[in-house]
Amino acid sequence: MSGFLRCAVMIAATVSTGLVAGLFSAFSIAVMPGLGKVDDRGFVATMQSVNRVILNGWFLVAFVGTLVFAAAAALLNLDSDRRPVLLWVVAAFALSLATWIITAVVNVPLNNELEAAGNPDQIQDLAAVRQRFEAVWVRWNVVRSLTSTAAFGCLVWALVLYGRVTGRAGT
Questions:
Q1: pTM score, two decimals?
Q2: DSSP states of the chain as a string?
Q3: CA 102/CA 119 separation, integer angstroms
Q4: What number is the average pLDDT over the span 86-96?
Q5: Which of 28, 30, 71, 161 is the most exposed place for a label (fewest CB within 10 A)?
Q6: What percent of the chain has pLDDT over 70?
Q7: Which pLDDT does position 170 carry in this prediction?
């Protein structure tokens, strides 16, 4: 197996996971606390807009990359001399999968409900729409911030171990 390919996939897994962890963490520590201070109309309108624009190629490459590149990195490190690397990559994959599940089961359905509420200028009870969305979305975003950040940490450590293994083995 090409050492360059193995290394490139490990780096791609780490970078994509780091990007996703950074995005979700930014929402946890800055975006949602900031939006928590605006009125109901501003909150609903802004979150609807964010939910529309985030579905772009750059986000999808990073988000999909967390699983695809981690799975590929695991497959490329199945050699017995790479067992320590493999264990950390598998842990990262599991944490990224948890992030995906949270996103699919909680955050995306809430985003869809918020969008289905309609134009904020025509919503009768903006406070109720916000109340059904905000606390649950924020809570689970914090959880996926933690899972994706932990996955990133696992991949960083896997890269350290990978460097040790390849330095020792010359591959």
A1: 0.93
A2: --HHHHHHHHHHHHHHHHHHHHHHHHIIIIIHHHHTTS-HHHHHHHHHHHHHHT-SHHHHHHHHHHHHHHHHHHHHT-SGGGHHHHHHHHHHHHHHHHHHHHIIIIIHHHHHHHHHT--TTT-S-HHHHHHHHHHHHHHHHHHHHHHHHHHHHHHHHHHHHHHHHHHHH--
A3: 27
A4: 98
A5: 30
A6: 97
A7: 52
